[in-house]
Specification:
GO terms for molecular function: dynein heavy chain binding. Keywords: Coiled coil, Dynein, Motor protein. Belongs to the inner dynein arm light chain family. The relative contact order is 0.05. About 95% of the residues lie in helices and about 0% in strands. The chain starts with a helix and ends with a helix. The radius of gyration is 29 Å and the shape is rod-shaped. The chain is mainly α.
Length: about 70
């Protein structure tokens, strides 16, 4: 009957979902780790950028003082 077919289909889909869950959890953990690493890298690059901008500003001020 249609009811039995849909019940079988639903149970099969449930099993497929349960079997795929560990893989999804592993993928989620890997992606979270990658995200954290990228955030750390972004923070390091931002600090380097800020330091370089500060150096450039200081050099420009020093050159302006020499000219004045």
């Amino acid at each position: 009957t249609l009811y039995e077919s849909s019940l079988t289909f639903a149970m099969r889909k449930q099993l497929q979902a349960e079997q795929g869950a560990p893989e999804l959890n592993t993928t989620i953990l890997e992606l979270e780790e990658k995200k954290n690493h990228l955030e750390e890298t972004a923070e390091e690059l931002k600090k380097k950028k800020d330091a370089l901008e500060k150096q450039i500003k200081e050099k420009k001020l020093a050159e302006d003082k020499k000219r004045a």
